[in-house]
User: What shape does this take?
Amino acid sequence: MDKRQAIGSWLSGPRAAAEDAGVDFGYRGEQLGLPEEGPGSIARPGRRLGALAVDWGLCVLIAYGLITDGYGQATSNWALLLFFLMSALTVGTVGFTPGKRLFGLRVVTLETGTVNPLRALLRSALLCVAIPALIWDRDGRGLHDRLAGTVEVRV
Assistant: This one.
């Protein structure tokens, strides 16, 4: 192996090196029994981040409208509280937030296909902490989804 191949294998990462060695990781959601593409498949990171940006922006606008002394720390705190309430209430009742609806996503449990309010409350609290949402498994589920027993799928 020459230097270029060694550097190229290092840059492509451990997953690519394992796949080159013959390891089959399958597709996202395969272990959960979900389809690879189309409705019911695991939501892709771009859609999830887009939905999160829409929801957060909506909460910041509402908080900014409620706090009249301009944008500051209080506005961010109110926005986080509104985000938690919106996420817990809408995911716990209809399965999606406004941003998720806009991007064609839904939060479900694998057992029933719906989310009960207690799971939505736990999921929303972990999402507001942010760290669990940044830790993903090989299926693309965040730690907040794993702990709440939910999965975010395409509609």
Notes: The mean pLDDT is 87. The beta strands are 105-109, 150-154.
